[in-house]
Write a structure and sequence with these properties.
Elements (H helix, E strand, L loop, with lengths): L8 E3 L11 E6 L2 E6 L8 E4 H12 L6
Antiparallel strand pairs: 1-2, 2-3, 3-4
């Protein structure tokens, strides 16, 4: 996996429009990287693509709604 600073980051479509809840993702090799867009040099969560796809699909199906 390459360094998170060299990845192509994009904002999640689930992020709010107010600018206060922005999540960014980047795809690298077999991994998905996730970070807070307001803290680009902060922590990065790294998960395998398969786990990320499972999570996003569950969100779309409404399985994770409270």
């Amino acid at each position: 996996m390459t360094s998170p600073s060299t990845e192509q980051w994009f904002k999640s479509t689930y992020s709010g429009g107010s600018g206060t809840e922005c999540v960014e993702c980047a795809l690298g090799g077999s991994w998905t990287l996730i970070r807070d867009s307001k803290q680009e040099s902060g922590s990065v969560v790294v998960v395998q693509h398969q786990a990320w796809d499972f999570f996003v699909d569950a969100l779309r199906r409404g399985e994770l709604d409270n």
